[in-house]
Amino acid sequence: MKLNGYYQKLPGSYLFSTIGNKVKAFQDENPEVELIRLGIGDVTLPIAPAIIKALHEAVDEMGNGSTFHGYAPDLGYSFLRETIAQEDYQKRNCPIEADEIFISDGAKSDCGNIQELFATDAKIAVCDPVYPVYVDSNVMAGRAGEYDPVSGTWSNVIYLPCVRENNFIPELPKERPDLIYLCNPNNPTGTTLTKEQLKVWVDYAKAKEAVILYDAAYEAYITDPDVPHSIYEVDGARSCAVEFRSFSKNAGFTGVRLGFTVIPKEITSKEGSLHDMWARRHGTKYNGAPYIQQKAGLAVYSEEGRREVGEQVSYYMRNARAIYEGLTEAGYEAVGGINSPYVWLHTGTLTSWEFFDQLLTKAYVVGTPGSGFGPSGEHYFRLTGFGTYENTVRAVERMKRLKRL
Amino acid sequence: MKLNGYYQKLPGSYLFSTIGNKVKAFQDENPEVELIRLGIGDVTLPIAPAIIKALHEAVDEMGNGSTFHGYAPDLGYSFLRETIAQEDYQKRNCPIEADEIFISDGAKSDCGNIQELFATDAKIAVCDPVYPVYVDSNVMAGRAGEYDPVSGTWSNVIYLPCVRENNFIPELPKERPDLIYLCNPNNPTGTTLTKEQLKVWVDYAKAKEAVILYDAAYEAYITDPDVPHSIYEVDGARSCAVEFRSFSKNAGFTGVRLGFTVIPKEITSKEGSLHDMWARRHGTKYNGAPYIQQKAGLAVYSEEGRREVGEQVSYYMRNARAIYEGLTEAGYEAVGGINSPYVWLHTGTLTSWEFFDQLLTKAYVVGTPGSGFGPSGEHYFRLTGFGTYENTVRAVERMKRLKRL
After folding, report:
1. A118 touches chain B (CB under 8 A)
2. Is B13's pLDDT higher than 90?
3. A208 touching B, CB under 8 A?
4. What is the pLDDT of residue A122?
5. Does any CB of chain A come closer than 8 Å to the CB of residue B228?
6. Taking CB atoms and an 8 Å cut-off, how many pairs form between chains A and B?
7. Span A237-242, average pLDDT
8. What is the DSSP letter of B187?
9. How many Å apart are CA B107 and CA B244, to the nearest integer?
């Protein structure tokens, strides 16, 4: 069998599988312990009433011969693409049209698949630490080079450290990348680039003819007015930036599955147009997002939907703030929690996994080791605001006690 | 920009987009004409009541804090994987376990993505004509070589003609392929391989250490007892065959989106296990099929669900039989329609696209040109049984009149 040998280069298993296995082993040995999970970025509040109503209505349509929907348009229903263009972009003065929006089953698929549009020898740059899908999907495609288990780096990947020493702001790389992944607000650090800081990257990408792959999955959590909700708020981004968006974190769709990617028509070269290539990929390897889910997505933009999901975001942000404030007060060094549901702790002298084990076995709190997000995540740790408020407060109390031990 | 240059090698656009554009142009010019669409393989009956009930129940669960479901397990919920293993496999004496079943958003995605697990220099063999996704997804990955617009073939693809001269039964290739795509019942010809004929391919694959990528999306339409519903009915298939299955055609899920792929653990080489690689791909580039859809899939296997979807399949099969019998009677040469919703006509002296135009502009019937499915599809044409019975009968009458002109 001629297998894709690059898969075998991936070290270990996907971060969250490893955490799941460790937690299961501990829980099996300690069944009486009540763990609090602030690890994986999964939401916990149920889907909002306005969206549930839309889902029921769409299901009824599917059960009626005169309103049944078969194959959806590959790129998404117009009703949703137009609403997104208007509400998320044109109302923010971002010049994005409906036919530049591609509906999908979620930002993870899109972030993982987008690299297919580029040559195998395209060089990628990633913030470090960052969401692991960017690097892993490029490893699978043979674009990452060789893994060095000592440094935890890939030979052909340009790392942009985001650490306390640079206030978590990535610096322009010395070597020119073809693709630059930026996540803003960043997962896992919870830190942000302001519009001015993002402009530096847009200008750089244009000057170097690089493409920015901009993940805005957490834009609903932005509270600072100088942090942009979309990269298209920055002049010039239309010709160099792709944007990924998700319904998972603003509307609780982690189990519903819906997202979209924006590819302006201006990102072209002699070889072709990124927009047309992505359309072709959708037509060839995808059969469209379900009608039911797209109607649910539409309901997110209704007056009621907007209010209800806004309340959910506020709930999670209250949790994130409680974590940030509680731990800071207890003497932990932390960032995030202001424009993001994530709080990023420094683990001091402990490694990320040592801290994970300590937190699991002594405070009964599950978090995510920072080193799982890249080498510069070592000695950091991620906690999320996606639990219940009660559990979040209890987890913070437990961590305060741990600090006093 | 360093783009993936292989995308530019794909000729024209995806088959069904071209058809859609032609139909739209004709309809715009002739708004009074009532077209009957028997082209794209999309279902028309609404989702069955037992499934609608399950969808509503799942939506209610998503709206309740105590029954809400966030991220699904990457590979699918156990309730569905276990039911499939039991009902579709173990009850047919196919030795397939639940953890060899990977739930997804549909067979098209899986058929398109599976090639990623293989080396870029893996050589593929495809039946000709066949579902275009197999070849196109390999073209995009750089595995197909150069396109010859005269012959309509790719230099690095092994074609297995399925034409009237060989009773639509592919012959073993002279050159060894690494990957063999088989669709049974075949789309578009509607013809089948019996268990005995399929055994030849399993034995060949094992002897040559090739992998069979077996698309069984139309298995629900099989009526002949000697045609297998799964490749695992054939001894030895566990070590050489991957199977794709869909809920689209047996339960009308074209707009609901649900499918699955079976990868037995025995398909291994020194380099790794195909099963583990696909699991890794799911974990890295996919976030699981929606809970709502997986509950709907489960309802397909309930007593009521089974009866209701069985009636839908019978309805479409009555259409297919009406097309096959009506056109045969009128002097068309046709196959299919017995184990498949598809009828495959010979277009005589006309090319496939000439016949398409004639049928569109003179009989007001939309079908699919056979040449769109591969070079050996030239001078053939596909009609589907997925319309309403009334429209199907009218379309056949129109085609009979056309034949008499």
Report:
1. yes
2. no
3. no
4. 98
5. no
6. 237
7. 98
8. T
9. 6
Distance, CA of A160 to CA of A168 (rounded, Å): 10
- Taking CA–CA distances from B55, the nearest residue in chain A reads A59
Residue B201: CB atoms within 10 Å:
24
Q: What is the mean pLDDT of residues B92-110?
A: 98
CB neighbours of A56 closer than 8 A, spacing ≥ 6?
B56, B59
Closest CA to B295 of B263, B261, B256, B262: B256
Q: Which residue in chain A is spatially nearest to B251 when comparing CA positions?
A: A70
CB pair distance less than 8 Å for B1 and A267: yes
A4 interaction partners in chain B (CB closer than 8 Å): 116-120, 277
pLDDT at A13 > cutoff 90: no
Among B307, B260, B253, which Cα is nearest to B104's?
A: B260
pTM to 2 decimals? 0.96
The distance of B310 to chain A (nearest Cα, Å) reads 16
Beta bridge partners of B118: A3
Q: What is the mean pLDDT of chain B?
A: 96
Share of chain A above pLDDT 70, in %: 100
Q: Average pLDDT for residues A27-46, to the nearest whole number?
A: 94
- DSSP for A366-403 reads E-EEGGGG-GGGTTEEEEES-S-HHHHHHHHHHHHHHH
Q: Is A272 within 8 Å of B116 when comparing Cβ atoms?
A: no
CB A322 within 8 A of CB A398: no
Instruction: Test A284 with B14 for CB contact under 8 angstroms.
Output: yes
Residues from chain A that touch B42, judged by Cβ atoms under 8 A, are: 70-71
Asked if pLDDT for residue A11 goes beyond 90, the answer is no
Q: Is the pLDDT of residue B17 over 90?
A: no
Instruction: Summarize the confidence of residues A389-400 as an average pLDDT.
Output: 96
Report the candidate in B203, B214, B277 with the shortest Cα–Cα distance to residue B241.
Answer: B214
Asked if A4 has any chain B CB less than 8 Å from its own CB, the reply is yes
Q: Tell whether the model's pLDDT for residue B22 goes beyond 80.
A: yes
Interface test with A, best of B287, B309, B312 (most A CBs within 10 A): B287
State the complex-level ipTM.
Answer: 0.96
- Those residues whose C-beta lies under 8 Å from the C-beta of residue A392, and which sit 6 or more positions away, are A36, A38, A319, A322, A323, A385
Q: Does B358 touch chain A (CB under 8 A)?
A: no
